[in-house]
Each structure stands twice: as structure tokens, then as C-alpha cells.
Fold this sequence. Notes:
- The protein is of the alpha/beta class.
- It has seven helices and eight strands; from the N terminus they run ββαβαβαβααβαββα.
- The chain has a single domain (10-161), classed as Cobalamin-binding domain (Rossmann fold), CATH 3.40.50.280.
Amino acid sequence: xxxxxxxxGITLVHLEQQATGLFVAGDNLDCxxxxxxxxxxxxxxxxxxxxxxxxLYDTVEDLIAIGNETVAFxxxxxxxxxxxxxxxxxxxxxxRTRIVWFGEKPSSMHEEVLKLTKADGxxxxxxxxxxxxxxxxxxEDWKAIPGVSFRTETKQVQQPEEKVDxxxxxxxxxxxxxxxxxQQSR
Length: 186
């Protein structure tokens, strides 16, 4: 297992099926983007890496031992069933951990995922920004965050379909960079 930092941040989990049919906890491009975003904002994160997943309970105990308040599973069609079982066992052993799903499956089927699993929430778009916004907030407070569907103890909440305008963010960032270069040259 490879830990980048411990604490009340987020643990990223990407499960990849090998040719043998077994799964490993590895890395992928989505997780790299999230790590870069979190690092640029000084946010604590851990990427769970494990070449030999022995069984559900050992894997969940590893995730709990990391100590982060939120576990985010990057769910693909191939890993859906395993993520469902890991989520159930994680909630069974530590119901305080917030579990968020992101990736292809949860973004396109968030309503079904929340009905059929014990995940607390699903990221519908902009994984980096949405996951960052969810940290250090109680599930009930997620309603103020666009791009996430979640459940409370009493109901399932769907956020309005409004995406973050990344073009505006990039334009503002470029403007700020140009402005800082101009100030440095004076």
C-alpha cells in the first residue's frame, strides 16, 4: 500500500481487473488529476495501492487504518460489483466513513447507484472539484455542492443539472497568471 498522507482527507481507490480475473488496487488518469488538484490546494489525500487484494475484510481494514474521513472509489463497469461489496463491508465495520463513488458508472447512473448500494454519494461531474468540495462537510451539507447526488438518513437528494464552467475558471486562472507576470516585471 502506498500512502501519500494520512489524516482527515480523502482516500482514493481505483480497482483494476487483471487478465487473471483478480483485482488490484492501482492508479489511473482520473486519480492522477484528483491528486494534482488536491496537491495544488494543499489538501490531504491518500492513494490506496495494493498489488495483492487478499479478501474483502482485509482490504476494508486497510482502508479504515489509513484514517481518512472519506473514501472515494473510482468505479468502472468491471469494478462495480467489487466496489459494491467493499462499500457494504466498509459501512458494516465503520459507518462513520463517508463513501463517495466517482467515474463512469456513478456519473451516468447515480440514482440507481444510490438505490442499490450503501455509498453516501456519487460524483456526477468535475471529480476533482466536487470531491474537494465534499471534504470536511457532513453529508447533510452536501446539498450546497453542485455535481453530487447523495443520500441522507431519510431521503435521496439529486442536485440540479448545472455543471461548473471550467472554461471560465481557466480564463480567470490565465488572467491571474498574466497579471502576476506583469507585476513581477515592474
